[in-house]
Amino acid sequence: MSKLQKLALRLTILAFGIAAAMGIGALLIGEFGDLQVRVLLTTLAIGIMSLAVLCYLAPQQRRFVVLGIAGSITALVTLGLALYLIWSDEVWFEVPYSDLVLKYFAIMTIVSATIAQICMLSAMVSSAKSFTKWIFRFTVLAAVVVAGMAITVILNESADSEWFARTLGVVAILDAFGTVTLIAVRLFTGG
Prior knowledge:
The longest helix is centred in the middle third of the chain and has 28 residues, at about 95-120. Helix 2 runs antiparallel to helix 3 (about 60-85). This protein starts with a helix and ends with a helix. It has helices spanning about 5-30, 35-55, 60-85, 95-120, 130-155, 160-190. Helices cover about 85% and strands about 0% of the residues. The protein contains 6 helices and no strands.
């Protein structure tokens, strides 16, 4: 693990530790209201970001390390949008502006999650057999297609035809199946 990766890991643990303490404080101190809900949502957002960062740090191959860096950048943007949505009162009153921010947030969440999935899975194929590499390639392709189709739905409301929804569902299931299969093969057979 490089010095930069170690620093990122330490910062991730520290950030989530602080957020977790804030979340626990929100649950245990005072009356439960709007402020506590916002603090808990902040804790959730930072927790999800922390999990994603752990996935971004997993790759060992150089090309996937670069992808992990790109994922970290997208995750920071996603976290920034999440915190803006959680803490900004004006977003909820300006409907068109709010809709635009929500669309960007949804797109960045999809991109961040897809990169995290690919980074996590890439760590399992660095020294794997060809069968495992084939499963990895298939799963990455499915994940990218799912992400692209989901973003299409967000950007284009006319993409909600029945065939589009069915295709998205089939590819999403194949993506999940490939992910579970790859993890199972690597963990339980060493493949």
